[in-house]
TrEMBL record, chains A, B:
GO molecular function terms attached to this record: asparagine-tRNA ligase activity; ATP binding; nucleic acid binding
Family to which this protein belongs: Belongs to the class-II aminoacyl-tRNA synthetase family.
PROSITE patterns referenced in this protein's UniProt entry, alphabetically: AA_TRNA_LIGASE_II
Organism for this UniProt entry: Trametes coccinea (strain BRFM310) (Pycnoporus coccineus)
Composition-biased stretches (Low complexity): 196-214
A Gene Ontology cellular-component term: mitochondrion
Protein's recorded name: Asparagine--tRNA ligase, mitochondrial
Keyword terms: Aminoacyl-tRNA synthetase, ATP-binding, Ligase, Nucleotide-binding, Protein biosynthesis
Entry-linked Gene3D superfamilies: Bira Bifunctional Protein, Domain 2 (3.30.930.10), Nucleic acid-binding proteins (2.40.50.140)
Residue span(s) of domain Aminoacyl-transfer RNA synthetases class-II family profile: 144-493
Example GO BP: asparaginyl-tRNA aminoacylation
Length: 501, 501
């Protein structure tokens, strides 16, 4: 309380927002208050006029009532205004309070003839074309506030559990195992050569040797530089000292595919921690984070509004079943990959439902993932212990003690969390901490051991069993809100062919 | 309390960290506990052995006492261990509690002969060469925890004041006014042409036209794409709907200069808000944020340890004077640029102290900034209302009512916050919201109006007076901790010629 007072005095230049005013109205109903915002709608009658004013701070705007109709004369949709008046109990339905306006000032006009954000329903494509203005719509505004509150809940969960947030690098020398879906960077004044030089062609087996590696003088960093596709490897280095670390950080993939689940630039929650020894434990942390997140949003008016909008378009309002997951008495379903494939095969044999026949050793197709989460489990499902051949080199090989080994190393200690509507929301694993097995995996995957000298050092010097996961933040927002495409789950989306502003 | 119980049950796979154990020791002193961590030092005597164990969660590690000396036999610096025992009051000086060890297990060995992180003092250059391991040092560990707690305090301040956090884009079409210090990007499989195509050569005056702009097929985004140098313009678009927004986001400058204050990749706190009409108000928010930040760190053992380390190297421990700023009864000093130049000129006339003679219309050199903050004010100083010719196009022109106009438009409503030891920590301004004046400024700065069509739209449709600022996060950490170079203020620094990992 003391802190809060100090804060508001220090920042006295910030008058209360509409959200703050509605949450703590002035104690006297005749106190004069001032509201700044934009006109969302205006309805002028003979003896009274009404307008909805939004400052973007809350899901419902504030109803303003003009008994002096002249005050509302200049109000048009989209104009920015400063209103003075009294906050009174509202006799109308739909809001508890309304502003009885005594003074109105238009700060910034908005020509209704040319304003691109007309009141009529605008298509998502139209709004993508106007992404500098689309935060003015109710849905995108609610989505932005939901992102903010989701990130806050994530920070709370990890801090409460002893994690610290780390800013991992965006520019990296790691080219994502040469997969070619990375972005390469160079100074504008000195673009990269058109033939990428082989990654770390001259680096030797100790990390410090990178300073003496043969440099290409035209490279700003003396190495080819890429945008990160994942912070995991960097987080592992920090987790080998700080034990529990996480990051909410941008990641980049130069994908050509155009789906509702992929962006070229997206945000990822990634966590890594030491001294964990089972995939089950990693799943427990993920489930704990998501339960906390849902619990923190039990009364979110943003989630409510977004699901209501979805229902208005003919979709189902899945909010109740989502929120119920927060306190579900049983742990969320966990299945091994082998068990999942058996289920898929049995279903396919009965119904011939799939385009791709499920088979052990093959990746799960999106139709398989959807069936598992949406029809079989009807909720989130952790699929664990995939075949090693389907997964990256750093995942820990299962041995004889693991639940689902066929031969040592045939499966790895990993999981994907599949959720209805979205598919894969989280992926994680134990990381191989055994030096010899990791070296063998690097070789088996055809990677250059010299590139991973620093990563091997983490095992060589006081390595510890550890694990972690990555969660796509836009997919999380899509799951929580029912927003169909991740392109509407971030302020200014970027995908192949598409980058405005 | 209820929430905390739920949390720990959901994440029961996470045993308490050393920080948590020391903050809430088990109620029974004979309770068996388990500690995971790395050996920081070990001292073996005949009848007893001591080791300091760190799991990175707290500034002091945990002292472990082995009355069974055999248990400590395999312990070496850097090894990861799991210890079991009882947490007892420590008879020794330097710690309140110690672990009396009954079982010890080495999880990951560390050969003391080859371990790169020997106990002896390691130079900053050596640690930069081993940045995958340097989080294991006390200073870098403390810095990482300080970054985390500083970010948390920032989130708290802005949330308490009605702001929401927005993830602004990293990849942008804005080439930073062609300044050439940007990084350009392209898919690895399809590098950009060596001659950058002129920025938005074909875009027209409405934002939506970008979709129909002539595309260069080789560009992934159909436009040249850059890494952002600042989120400001994007934040302004969101602030024109959400009123109060901020971001803590990576920014990039392809600078060639090698200083202790510059990185190629750095994190910036940026905030923008609508309905603010004076630079003084913007400064008040910045000062409020920094006071809150310092107040939140009054008992920070990380800040204490970092200043102690600085003092041990012969520097001064400035922590008391920093913390005193949090509750200083007077607002921090504010000076106009004109007043600052007058002071600098008078000082220079008396002492001939500067290499560059101060003069109205010229930029403040770093020697000038240092003198103002370190010698004249001896604390933070806001310098306001710089000549328009020194500042970017978007800053609001001062008119006759402003404190320091010479002719209309001669100065702009801006400020730099200078602090001892660092120099410029924050820069901000009102943004020009008047359409005609902004158009004129774009022309005067030789920019292409078509590139800023979307930015002009923000003024055309319901524009509002607004302002904001940017704060370099690494510089903030340097200011709070006394760490000399920003290269030690981030986990894995990148600068010209330098990017490991």
């Amino acid at each position: 309380m003391l802190i809060r007072r100090c804060l508001s005095s220090a920042a006295s230049s910030l008058p209360p927002t509409i959200r703050q005013l509605l949450a703590s109205p002035p104690s006297s109903p005749t106190a004069a208050i001032q509201v700044n915002g934009w006109v969302k709608s205006v309805r002028k009658q003979k003896k009274v006029a009404f307008a909805v004013i939004s400052d973007g701070s809350s899901e419902p705007g504030l109803q303003a009532v003009f008994t002096d109709v002249g005050l509302a004369k200049q109000l048009t949709n989209g104009a920015s205004v400063r209103l003075r008046g009294m906050l009174k109990d509202s006799p109308g339905a739909g809001q508890a309070k309304e502003l009885q306006v005594s003074e109105a000032e238009v700060l910034g006009e908005c020509d209704p003839e040319t304003y691109p954000m007309q009141k009529k329903a605008l298509t998502v494509e139209y709004l993508r074309d106007h992404c500098h203005l689309r935060a003015r719509t109710r849905e995108i505004g609610a989505m932005l506030r939901l992102r903010d509150s989701a990130a806050t809940a994530i920070h709370d969960y990890f801090h409460n559990n002893g994690f610290i947030h780390v800013h991992t690098p965006i520019i990296t020398s790691n080219d994502c195992e040469g997969a070619g879906e990375t972005f390469r960077i160079a100074p504008s004044s000195d673009p990269p050569s058109t033939t990428p030089s082989p990654a770390s062609s001259a680096s030797t087996s100790t990390a410090s040797s990178a300073t003496t590696a043969q440099s290409t003088p035209s490279e700003y960093f003396h190495h080819p530089a890429y945008l990160t596709v994942s912070s995991q490897l960097h987080l592992e280095a920090v987790a080998a000292a700080i034990s529990r670390v996480y990051t909410l950080s941008p990641c980049f993939r130069a994908e050509r595919s155009q789906t509702s689940r992929h962006l070229a630039e997206f945000w990822m929650l990634e966590a890594e921690w030491a001294f964990t020894s089972s995939v089950d434990d990693v799943c427990t942390v993920v489930e704990g984070a998501l339960r906390h997140l849902l619990r923190a949003h039990a009364a979110s008016s943003e989630m409510e509004a977004l699901w209501r909008a979805r229902a208005a378009e003919g979709g189902a309002d899945k909010r109740p079943e989502l929120l119920a997951l927060a306190d579900a008495p049983q742990p969320w379903t966990r299945l091994t990959y082998t068990a999942a494939v058996d289920l898929l095969k049995a279903h396919h044999a009965r119904t011939n439902a799939f385009v791709f026949a499920p088979d052990w050793g093959k990746g799960l197709q999106s139709e398989h993932e959807r069936w598992l989460a949406e029809e079989h489990v009807r909720g989130p499902v952790f699929v664990t212990d995939y075949p090693a051949s389907l997964k990256p080199f750093y995942m820990r090989a299962n041995d004889a003690s693991s639940p689902d080994h066929r031969a040592p190393g045939a499966t790895v200690a990993c999981f994907d969390l599949l959720v209805p509507g979205v598919g894969e929301l989280v992926g994680g694993s134990l990381r191989e901490e055994r030096l010899e097995l990791l070296e063998a995996a690097i070789e088996r995957h055809g990677l250059d051991r010299a590139d991973y000298a620093w990563y091997l050092d983490l095992r060589r010097y006081g390595g510890a069993p550890h694990g972690g996961f990555g969660l796509g933040f836009e997919r999380l927002i899509s799951w929580m809100s029912g927003i169909e495409s991740v392109r509407e789950c971030v302020a200014m989306p970027r995908w192949a062919g598409r980058m405005l502003l």
